[in-house]
Amino acid sequence: MLFNQLGLSAELLRAVDEKGYKEVTPIQQQSIPLILAGKDVLAGAQTGTGKTAGFTLPLLQHLQNSPNNRRSIRALILTPTRELAAQVAESVRDYGSHLPFKTAVIFGGVSINPQISKLRNGVDIVVATPGRLLDHMQQRTIDLSKVEFLVLDEADRMLDMGFIRDIRKVLAVLPKQRQNLLFSATFSTEIRNLAAGLLNSPVEITVAARNKPAELVKQVVHLVDKARKRELLSHKIGSENWKQVLVFTRTKHGANRLAQQLSDDGLASAAIHGNKSQTARTKALADFKSNKVRVLVATDIAARGLDIDKLPHVVNYELPHVPEDYVHRIGRTARAGREGHAVSLVCVDEKKLLADIEKLLNSQIHQEIIPGYEPDSRIKAEPITQGRSNRPSGNRNANPRNRRGGAPKKKAIQRQRPSGKQRRAS
Predict the structure, then answer these.
(1) Are residues 175 and 26 in the same domain?
(2) Quick one: which of 7, 14, 54, 413 has the most CB atoms within 10 Å?
């Protein structure tokens, strides 16, 4: 199906055409007509399926069809991470480039004052992380009393990161009459409970099976000794002329070390993780998208919500402890109908992690041993220690405040006694 068959306005179709899109993705084909019809939607969609356009386009048309002479916040989009908030806001601006609406993006890690100034000047759409949005609510620098449209994007990630209480505080101040959209990669019990209290007679749509990687991702495992992983990675990037490579490590320290080693090998690299400042993270991502940086090394938490158009290569330098994170990692490539390449460098220590991933996928991943990098059969497996930077695999409610971008416990205590000077790292 083509975009011009969905009943979108001429202004939106012009913006879509300028971005080079013609055919809709399955999530767009299902969600856009429902949202245009005013339905609440519970959508199951993996990252890279085109879901941002799936809610942004009908949201903009809704605002276009019911103009408001007095500028007020009419649409609120909540996302789990700063990077995703910035990227969603960019999409809203791109798709709304021929419409008169103003958008503000709100997240922590940067000064709150420019955000306050923009809100005072009037905006129609706000894209925000829950933490910084609460800061504005407590300082009374934002008015959500006219919101007509609410989107929770990557809701499962928001719950994983401990935002459920913040989300409920936001919901409590919104008008009762509004249209609600909830997008999630998985439908856990927690998501079902949230949807039951948020959505009004929702239509449920699902476009990808849970824990199923994109079909256009070519997956391969290279067995290699741990001590030779970096050497093999540099060899593959150089010999096969990979231009954009997103590499995953398990720890922040490991990301820093690998980025430096790859830079020493002559491959322009940068690391992105929770200990990096927002300015550094934004610059690293921008340099990667513009090809100034060839390799971006990331931890799972830092990479949540990253939307890198036409990303050709994802590398699991270290396999994740949580099998589901493998699916989220490789979902960064093969987006919106494009082919992608996912490589996993697996040492003897990680054989159990690989088996857990294959059990989740219900299939074996093709294995190739690169000549000259054959693993030494004399090396015995050693236990893998799980660093503090890894995502907890147990109780999601344990210390939820400490999972907001690595915010220390002291911040959570301060939140109980808010003041105008406090800042939130989310």
Answers:
(1) yes
(2) 54
Q: What's the domain range around 280?
A: 217-368
What CATH number has the domain bearing residue 355?
A: 3.40.50.300
Backbone angles phi, psi at 130, to 5 degrees: -60, -40
CA distance 377 to 186: 39
273 and 143 both lie in a single domain: no
Asked, for residue 400, whether it belongs to a domain, the answer is no
Would you state the pLDDT for residue 415?
38
Number of domains in the chain: 2
- Tell me which residue has tokens 């919101």: 147
pLDDT recorded at residue 189: 84
Identify which of 137, 147, 164, 132 has the alpha carbon closest to the alpha carbon of residue 63.
147
The whole-number pLDDT of residue 114 equals 95
pLDDT at 408: 37
Q: Are residues 199 and 221 in the same domain?
A: no
Residue 425 placed within a domain: no
Which value, in Å, is the radius of gyration of the alpha carbons in the chain? 22
Is residue 45 a contact partner of residue 207, using CB atoms and an 8 Å limit? yes
Please tell me the distance from the alpha carbon of residue 11 to that of residue 6, in angstroms, as a whole number: 13
Q: Is the pTM of this model over 0.85?
A: no
Q: How many beta carbons lie within 10 A of that of residue 382, not counting itself?
A: 10
Asked if residue 396 belongs to a domain, the reply is no
User: What type of residue is 64?
Assistant: Q
Residues of the chain with pLDDT under 50: 387-426
